[in-house]
């Protein structure tokens, strides 16, 4: 049976970033990915935004890792030729009532260490985004966009160049704690690891549940939330210059349907947000373009349903059930019974941005495990 120092379950952006970080100094690092390629789940089915850290509770893992990850992501993209652009964004209040919420959001971002934030008036909105309407907005200069698929591939390339092994078609089916290791059984075979990282994304709760019979009942439950996107191409692509967001959902379900100028000179509208039952349901009952248009016209009056074409959807790993109160923070912790296993659960947005900062934390935790 093969032996490893580290087995990372899940080859999404976080799993690959961890592999890139730990393989600098540790040999025998394996990434086990269930899909045919890395990053086929939530890591690439998103808006491709490099977030600033504006929205999150001060001191939370989301706040800390997003702000640190923002810096690290720009540095990594520049060093490894990952297509990206620092665009800045506007968070727009439609009317005077919404504008009353901007100062508190601004102070939350500043408390998190987000630099350069300021409130602009309607004229300031038009100066950046001439086709948008709004009463006032927060200008966020550190936000940007990235080709998320290329980012995941770059982390994977760095990891493999440092000796890590990335194994696809390797869904993990069994975890068996031993005296000094964890035996991991996957569709690709068995391996014993001194440390296991559960970075299973949407399926991280199911990975943790594989320990049932060896430990207490699994304490994690992921509630999938699907978001659909539409794309706008020429001749209407000029309507959006960068990134424009509404105020975030009061129920914390999402940051709201927003506008994202892409690196290929179109723009995305989305995502929507609704709870679903099936974690693999990317296609059933898509949001009608007419509903996208109705939402979009609040800020972008020139948009019409005929300008929108459905494009793709993504599924978030939510820890808050339907009707529950949020927001929930990332969970990054050792298994209560088997400290050689580290669980990452509920790594939703801003997980793409946070990935290299999460990898820093995991590198330290793994070093402690390996001694």
What does this 3D model show about the protein?
- The structure is a single chain.
- With 371 residues, this protein is an alpha+beta fold.
- It folds into 2 domains: 2-44 and 149-221 and 327-370, FAD/NAD(P)-binding domain, CATH 3.50.50; 86-143 and 223-318, D-Amino Acid Oxidase, subunit A, domain 2 (D-Amino Acid Oxidase, Chain A, domain 2), CATH 3.30.9.10.
- 26% of the residues lie in helices and 27% in strands.
- The protein is built from 9 helices and 20 strands.
- The protein has helices spanning 13-22, 61-79, 96-99, 102-111, 122-128, 148-161, 204-209, 289-296, 351-370, and strands at residues 2-9, 29-32, 49-50, 84-86, 89-93, 118-121, 136-140, 144-146, 165-167, 172-177, 182-186, 189-198, 223-232, 243-246, 258-261, 267-270, 274-275, 309-318, 331-334, 341-345.
- The model has no long low-confidence stretch (mean pLDDT 95).
Number of structurally distinct domains? 2
Largest sheet: 9 strands, mixed
Roughly what is the average pLDDT, rounded to an integer?
95
Q: What is the helix/strand order?
A: EHEEHEEHHEHEEHEEEEHEEEEEHEEEH
Percent of sequence in beta strands: 25-35%
Distance between the termini: 23 Å
Structural class: alpha+beta
Level-2 CATH architecture of the largest domain: 3-Layer(bba) Sandwich
Apparent shape: elongated
CATH superfamily of the largest domain: FAD/NAD(P)-binding domain
